[in-house]
Design a protein that fits this description.
Elements lengths: L16 E5 L13 E5 L2 H8 L3 E8 L2 E8 L2 E7 L4 H15 L3 E10 L9 E9 L3 E2 L15 E2 L18 E5 L2 H9 L9 E8 L7 H11 L1 E5 L2 H10 L4 E9 L11 H24 L1
Parallel strand pairs: 1-10, 2-5, 2-6, 6-13, 7-11, 11-12
Antiparallel strand pairs: 3-4, 4-5, 6-12, 7-10, 7-13, 8-9
Helix pairs in contact: 1-6, 2-5, 3-6
């Protein structure tokens, strides 16, 4: 399959989206700070950790970290464990312990976009939390319909009446432009599928209802779903750490794309090239 350069044109539904750019100015002078590469499971982290030079494994609580270098630059691979709470904790630990220059969250995901195939990679220009919704009031016996649920912005401030000012909106966490640039620079080296810009949806839910998946894709432009990126992005934003999520499709229920366990390896190889491009840009800027 041929590769293609990704573009950042997203047709988003008016009134449903709130963008949050990740601030980067707090990290402009930490040239020696490590870059964090996150993967939830061993299959999403250990392959990358094996690529580090001078590697040393460290345990903090229940989380594993591998400290090493790539092209002489400090890099830490973080096995975050699965789920929104685990990745939030792992990201907070990384922020406090390593004071990183940037964070790249990567791994596998299920497809929401029928145009995407297994081994295609989505670079998350945005990530969104697909687990925060408010249901309409219904009486006993009236049933439940998830496509009627309205998104809650958990970071929205309260109005005078105690209601969210941005009720029924979904918050987007925007990726860092320099990390997006590095992702673009690495596209030419990826030959196993397409590399596209998109929206990564995250929640502690495994969705297999095609109507609900279509609802997410149509309303919020989600390309894929998984269980970590938006949570990691939210914590990174709180610490003003540049962030990007990168996910490979391991399956796609919308077009019968079957699960392939080797996709996680392919994603790590692509992200390794992204990392090297980002490090090159850092070193060029330091000259």
């Amino acid at each position: 399959m041929s590769h293609s350069r990704f573009t950042f044109t997203l047709s988003l539904v008016s009134g449903l989206l709130i963008s949050v750019a990740l601030p980067t100015q707090a990290n402009t002078d930490n040239s020696g700070a490590p870059i964090i590469i996150q993967g939830a499971m061993p299959v999403e982290a250990e392959h990358f950790a094996a690529k580090l030079d001078n590697v040393k494994e460290e345990h903090i609580g229940g989380w594993r970290f591998w400290k090493g270098t790539v092209d002489g630059y400090p890099v830490v691979v973080s096995e975050t464990l699965k789920g929104m709470s685990n990745v939030a904790a792992a990201t907070s630990i990384a922020a406090l312990e390593f004071k990183p220059k940037a964070i790249i969250n990567q791994g596998t995901a299920g497809g929401h976009d029928p145009a995407l195939n297994v081994y295609d990679i989505v670079v998350g220009k945005y990530s969104v939390n697909l687990g925060a919704f408010k249901t309409p009031h219904k009486q006993p016996g009236e049933g439940s319909n998830s496509v009627e649920w309205k998104p809650m912005d958990l970071l929205a401030s309260k109005g005078s009446a105690g209601e969210d000012k941005n009720a029924h909106s979904i918050r987007q966490f925007a990726a860092d432009p320099q990390l997006l640039k590095a992702a673009d620079q690495a596209v030419a080296g990826y030959q196993k599928g397409k590399v596209v810009s998109g929206v990564i949806g995250s929640a502690d839910v495994w969705n297999s209802e095609l109507d609900r998946i279509r609802f997410f894709h149509q309303q919020f432009n989600t390309s894929v779903e998984e269980m970590e990126t938006a949570s990691a992005a939210q914590i990174a934003a709180q610490f003003a750490i540049p962030f990007v999520g990168i996910r490979v499709l391991s399956n796609n229920i919308t077009n019968n794309g079957k699960y392939d366990a080797q996709t996680g390896i392919a994603c790590q190889d692509y992200v390794y090239d992204v990392l090297k491009a980002y490090i090159k840009d850092i070193k060029t800027a330091q000259k």
